[in-house]
Amino acid sequence: MIKNLFLLGIGFFSISCQFPNNNKGPYFANGIKNGWADQNSIVLWTRLTQNNSAHFKGHPFIEISREKMKSLALNQDVEGIYNTQIPKGLSLKNMEGYCPGASGEVQLRYFLKEDPADAIVTDWVAVDSSKDFTHQWKLNGLQAGKKYGLKIYARPQKGRKISDSIFGQFLLPAYKKTAKDVKFCVVSCHDYNRRDDKQSGHKIYPSMSKLKPDFYVHTGDIEYMDKPFPYAMTEELMRFKWNRLFALPFQRSFYNNYTSYFMKDDHDVGYDDSYPGKDYGTVSFERGLQIFDEEQFPSNPKRYKTIRWGKDLQIWIVEGRNYRNQNYLEDGPDKTIWGKAQKQWFYDTVGASEATFKVLITSSPILGPDRKNKNDNLSNAGYSFEQAEILNFIKKQKNLFIVNGDRHWQYVTHLKNTNLWEFGCGAGADIHAGGWKQEDFRPEHQFLRVKGGFLSVSVNATKEPTIKFTHHDVEGNVVNEVVF
Ligand SMILES: [Fe+2]
Q1: Quick one: pLDDT band at residue 23, thresholds 50, 70, 90?
Q2: What structural domains does the chain harbor?
Q3: Distance from the CA of 189 to the center of ligand 1, in angstroms?
Q4: What is the CA(37)–ligand 1 centre distance, in A?
């Protein structure tokens, strides 16, 4: 029985339901992800799996040269893509991290943490086998500023026993009149192969948990399709990489418990610095976007959103891949990363905001500095028109700060005699850091650290509210702080 009329399931029924022929499973090896939370709504995601964990003890992939990878990709040589990376006589199911999906049904039960007895229970619904055995619920009519608990159940089919269940929770933002402290964490750039805890995942996750943030933002490059072990040049291999990463224990327990906003960047879609027309192997750029936007992460019709978190904070999540044109175009007023509609929305919503502090969260830098040879983000020379347009607007605002991912070093940039500040959160592990020299400390740098970690942002809702930007190492230790 659905008690809540506001509930809307946005997944589709699976077309073919091949139920497993045993009494075990399906399971939730990939946990729960949530996204797009605002005062009254959130999107929940889950996936049914054949086993209760990924096959982490599987066989390692073979590394091939980048040249070989490029030629396989260019020729869309499917046989070669598999044969060169998987040892002879083995198949994908033997490989490290294999986490196959399973048909079955899921049911959601959710409740205000302060009133667990009054739970809302949804109808059972089949996961969508055409979307990698995932299902999403969009919950509406929720209460602002409240914490919700949830439990999701799995069963192989109608009439059969529950095979697995999983707990989760999330916090919703308060309305704009509510003055209260808010803390959030920002992460960028990590992948399965460069995790710093071989058993469990990335250390930043338990480190962030200790800070008990209200919410969390991943700015993208969550996984790297164009890095080896394996190079993911087919849809099946892309899904393989997503499912392997999200079966890691640290990732799973963090995402199950925190309100999250998942952004994406080039490597999530396919190839480095990707743009329309830049396909990767057999996966078109557009298909790469779709797998991220509609299948592997909580979905939303628009890829950008602004969310007020109480009286003193409003954040803007902007999209950097879906609306851009080709990177190689000559710079000019029409060359864009954000696209016209998103830019206008940004100007309008910032103009209308009365929040004490405004934080623009972007998957890649706007101020930089970045390396001279790059031509992919607003801080690069090839985007000087759009950079100037957006910065001219930001210069006219009060207390608007830029937070970004993408670059694999932590930094604070401030342009003297302006109100322009940019906080680069850096890569999610020390082994992932690089791309800039520690000794290359420029005049605009207020802080520079070529190591992994994350950024936390804390708003203190006192009579004279403050906002603090703190860089942390992977263990959570403070390495820099800036307070306004
Ligand atoms: Fe990256």
Answers
A1: low
A2: 8-53+99-171 (2.60.40.380), 182-483 (3.60.21.70)
A3: 4
A4: 25
